[in-house]
Structures are given as structure tokens and as C-alpha cells.
Amino acid sequence: MKSALKLAIALLSFAAAMPHAASAAPGDTLKAVQARGALNCTSSDGNFEGFAEVDAQGKWHGMDIDYCRAVATAIFGNDDKLKLIPISWAQRFPSLQSGDLDLVIKATGWLMSRDTELGLQFSMPYFIGVTQFMAHKDLKAKSLADLAGGTVCLAGGTSTEKLVSDYIKEKKYDIKVVTFEKNTEATAAYFANRCDAYSEWGPIVAATRATSADPDNHDILSDALSLEPEAVVMRQGDDSWVDLVNWVIASQRIAEENGVTSKNIDEMKANPPNTVVGKLLGVTPGIGARLGLKDDWAYNVIKKLGNAEEMYNRNFGTESRYKLPRGLNSPWNKGGVFFPPVLD
Questions:
Q1: Residue pair 301/248 in contact by the 8 Å Cβ criterion
Q2: Are residues 183 and 191 in contact, defined by beta-carbon separation less than 8 angstroms?
Q3: How confident is the model at residue 327 (pLDDT cuts 50, 70, 90)?
Q4: CA-CA to 74 of 20 to 30 Å: which in 33, 88, 188, 239?
Q5: What is the C-alpha separation between 182 and 46, in angstroms, rounded?
Q6: What is the largest CA-CA distance in the chain?
Q7: Backbone φ, ψ for residue 259 (5° rounding)
Q8: Residue 79: phi, psi to the nearest 5?
Q9: Is the full-model pTM beyond 0.85?
Q10: Contacts of residue 57, Cβ cutoff 8 Å, sequence gap at least 6
């Protein structure tokens, strides 16, 4: 990646992370969540590999689910009061606006149209990916241009649909986009040979291919569409709620940068190696009052969910079935684009 693009992403992340007017008063959303005694967050209407998956015991896991758990843990001290609400892609924003959801954490791209026209507010990005295509190997396609007259399956009502449709229109390709309500339906249609190609976000395409019955019979095409930052979505107008979510994300990055993990956190808390770790883990008072939380909120999050690296490895990396390199999702000092804001 060009350094200029990395810098642009970094500045974008920083802008989202900047706190608003100093205030220790909790926002309306936090008050409502605490009064309800539960955080209402998204799960999915089907498996979305690595981000939201349900296992044989009916338990949800994945990167998005972990961020829901992290926010609930920051507020309540544990994730027992997290209520995961299965929701379709199309219904995620109406459900947020109606108050049925407190957060949308559903692999959602930060788009200008969503940010400016839908009454939504976005957190700092927590994941970066590009949109790609997978095609049946026997078609011998190297890029989308080789699929003239063909079809692409994907989930409708998503930023992927807009990106792919715009790309096909711009390139003047004779290719039809076939949409499905669920990503699982789109992949099923592709593997049933109802479509020539399947499109999704790069990590999902790679994971879908890697976990298919015959991964060698599918090629990932050379086209790489717009790099897309994924972020937590909230209702516009509650800056304190946005601050809380941003600092939950930041806390895990600060932990990684300072070598704090879920395994050594008690040792770190007993003997902080520096002032940042002391503040992060609540040894030095003050980190909680700024957000309307207790001082041990970040300790609880990292103890329960791990730092940013641990969370990635559990859902996509070395500890997952996908074994996907972290790449751009690494911190700045390890070749990626992410960095934490300053904890002062």
C-alpha cells in the first residue's frame, strides 16, 4: 500500500477517535442501556465467516460479536447482559433508528452517504478490507472482464452491491448482479453453479474459498475494488456514546502496543510497566469517569476479550480455521494502518 493511502486511513481513524467536548456525563444511549440492564447489539441472519457465526450449540462468535461483547463488558463488567439480535443487512439501520438496537456491529462500511444522509454516526474503523471476486476455476477467468455475459452473486442492500454495480457500470461489462438477502444464500447459489462469480469483502471471499468442499476449484480474480473501513454504527447525536465505543476499540490497541494481553493482565495491573498501562488498567484513577463507567472497564474488556491482536487471531488469524494474515489490520509499527489515540 502506498504510504499516502496509509496516512489517509490513519488520519481518518484519528478524526473519528477524537473526543468531543469534555464531559463525564453519560449520554442518553448509555443511560438507556444501564436502565434496561442489557446492551442490544447485532448478530446476523446467517453465518458471515469470521465476523458473525453461530456454532452447533447456538452460540455466536466472530469479530463483530466480540466487539458487541467488548462494549457490554465495558458497561456491565461482563458480557452476560449482552443481547444479540439477529438482523438482516437491510434492516440493520432501521432497527438502530427505531431504538431496537443500541449498536450495529455488522461488517458495515463507513460510507459518506450513510454518514451524511441516514442520521448515523460511525466509530473509528476496526477492520480494513477490499472487495474481491471468486469464480469457478473451469471458467478460466483471471479478472471480471473474462466473465462477459455472466453473473455475480452477492448479498443485496450492502456496500458490496453498490461497489460491484458501480464497477461493472464504469467498466461497461456485460455482467448481471444477482442479489440475495443473506450472504449464505449468495454463497449457496454460487457453489450450486447458479452464478459464475461470487463477490464479497476480501477476507470473506478468502474464508469462503478456504472452507469450501473444493477450494482448488475456485479462483480469486485480480480485481480489487475500493478499500473499505468497517466501523461500529450508532445513531447521530449522542457524542458520549460514540466516545465510549471508540475508547473500547482503542483500549485493545493500546493494550497490544504496550504488551498487555488477557494472560498477563493481572501481572501488569499489579505492577504497571509504565504510566499508560497504569491508566489503562485503572490502577491510576480517572479512565472510567470520563466515559460514565468504572475505572476497571478496560481491564475487564482486555481480560475477557484480549488485546487487538488476540481478537484478530481468534477470529481470522492463527487460532482460527481461516489462518488469514493480518496484513493491513496490523498496527502501524507492524506494517498495518491502525494505531491507538493517546491515552493521557
A1: yes
A2: no
A3: confident
A4: 88
A5: 7
A6: 65
A7: 75, 20
A8: -100, 15
A9: no
A10: none
